[in-house]
Amino acid sequence: MGLSVRCESTRESLEIFTLCVERGFLLELRRDAEPLTRRKFLVEQMPSPLRMIHGILCGEIMPKRSVRTILLALAALMVVLAVWLLATSPSAVTQREAERRRAEAGSEGASAPTSLASMTVDSHLVQRSSERARIDVSGLLEPIQKVVLAAEVAGQVVAVEVQEHAAVDDGDVLVRLDPALPDAAVKRAQAAVLRAEAQDRLAQSELGRQRNLSKRGVTSSADLDRAESEARSGRARVAEAEAELVDAKTRLAKTEIRAPFAGFVTELDLDPGTYLQPGQRVAEVADLSQIEVGVGVSAREILALSVGDPVELRVQALPGERFKGEIASLSRTADSKTRKYRVPVRFANTELRLLPGMLGTLRFKLGGSRSAVIVPRRAVREEFDLDYLYVLDPAEEGRAVARRRRVATQPLAFRPEIIEVTSGLEPGEVIATTGVRELRDGQLVRVREDVANGTSVLNGL
After folding, report:
1. What fold, for 112-129+370-452?
2. Among candidates 246, 252, 254, which has minimal Cα distance to 282?
């Protein structure tokens, strides 16, 4: 929509133009005579910011370009920005630093060791171990069976037959409830069975008579059908009465709370006169003939175990004693929270020296005996998925030259503090176990005497 404004003076035209620019309207200022000259005059009278806006809108300051040219310029600017961000990203900086270190390592390999030993390191004499790998895992001792007994029928406690912590056999009575009401229910059910049986005999007798009369043609088919129906109903009443009798006897039997297996009463806190409701806790019985210790292992560790593997147990409360057991089973599903696989280990407990709640340490032996080179994990330096360690070459008394060497390693199950070297290291060589992050290839270091003389930190394996 266009708007034509006729201005009588220069001041009036300038005010109208300023207002339209502020509101976002485009306005062509002219008068009937000499429109171009008049507009030029008005523009010259504008303040500098308004003259700039007017020039951009009219194409006098910046020439009009196509949309395609502007988009290409923006795209080129974005490409330049992306290249700059990629070159200055942390990963690019890390990669350049790694390349620089590798180049320095290559150049330092040919250089002579420094004359001054500025570091003191511990060392480890590399040896080949032929013993079976052993692992130690801690866990709590638990009974092989434990059950909580609860009342199944309502009733008043009339007798507590055992004491808490007493030994019981399978089927021993622990608590007795008042049997008066259940016993009366049994007698009513027995009477109901007798009535149902009498009615059934009567119905069967009537059915026999109706069948004889039907053969002689004396009775009708309707009377025979009625007799057969009564006979079937009689049998149903007998079955129903017998079921009621079984239910009544079961409820009577449940007034005696018995031990489900041989063991010990680990919890029983009831007094005669206590009224119990169905489901109320009564006692706890545990089987201590065997003790179970369950531990959680990772996916890699469970693959090194098998059912029946021997396990040794040491208990803090029984120092110096060792108990022999074996792996009972292996879980095939991991815990959803810990992502660990449960491994239960069972131990015979005929002398009842092992008690639930004790803290024990399990020692597993993995695989057969094999020869392997095992070093402390702290001696290995990992850089960009590659493993390195520093071999110490003797230089002079108490000093050695650290030589950087790449090795191949593999972890050991349950032993995060040590690692196996599969290639790149030979028995008899000495490696640095401390300061590996600060060491450089060819550096002269001091070696502590007690470790450099061949004392291994892994003699306990």
Report:
1. 2.40.420
2. 254
